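Hi there, hope your week has been kind to you so far. Would you mind checking whether the tokens look sensible for this chain? I owe you a coffee for this, so here goes:
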Amino acid sequence: MTTNTTSTWAGMVPVDDTALAVTDTGGPGIPVVYLNGQFATQGYWRRVIADLGPGWRHITYDERARGRKSGRSADYSFAAAVRDVDAVLAARGVRRPLVVGWSYGAFVAAHWVSRNPDRALGAVLVDGAQPFDWLDAAMEKRIRALFKRLNLVMPLLRPTGLTPRMSAVQMGDCNIEIGRVASARELGPVLDDITVPTRYVLASGTSLGSRGDEQERIRASLGAVTGRNPNIRISAKVASNHGAILRKDFRAVAAAVREIADRD
């Protein structure tokens, strides 16, 4: 059973060699667990949470070395990110959540619900978890160069929690790993195995680090996914780009959450 709390709880949840900063609004409503973008924080979800309102139980957390409080770790792998979902759910006594992930968090959400069909109410995947072979040697080089440039300003922002407490090499490694996770050979079977209601909310156009129509070609890969798996549908394609979707089109994300809940 899911353990209900009557008031908001905020604290640290130990996992492996670190601890994660978690916020749980409590209450008897459907528990929704929000999974952040790769270097984002739980604050990105505030508009979605406000739109859904207090009738839901909202659980957010900052991944390892993200935000102002989550601790550093020796392991920033994708596998660790998926394990962290279980750690947060166990700590908060949540058995069957609705999982919502944006960008990197969408990949984590897809893997988690695919592996835990009896424990998941459903999933909303926001402009991520699209199976496409976008990683090659040239892209790896671009990623390394991008994070090397960003590392010149990131130390100045780290005290604010807006950038992770990770090195440029570690951030590059994480980004390159998700390229491998996103490959059609790796991600396709994960999506095909999803048996719970899953909805995509897609952005439009380009954002930081992309060129031309790269992101639109990646999004187009979902046509084959929805054709193979009737549990997966595209709920909305919105006007904002990848980086602005939670700020400008939060209502579409909240609507997809309600759509999943209405099916339960």
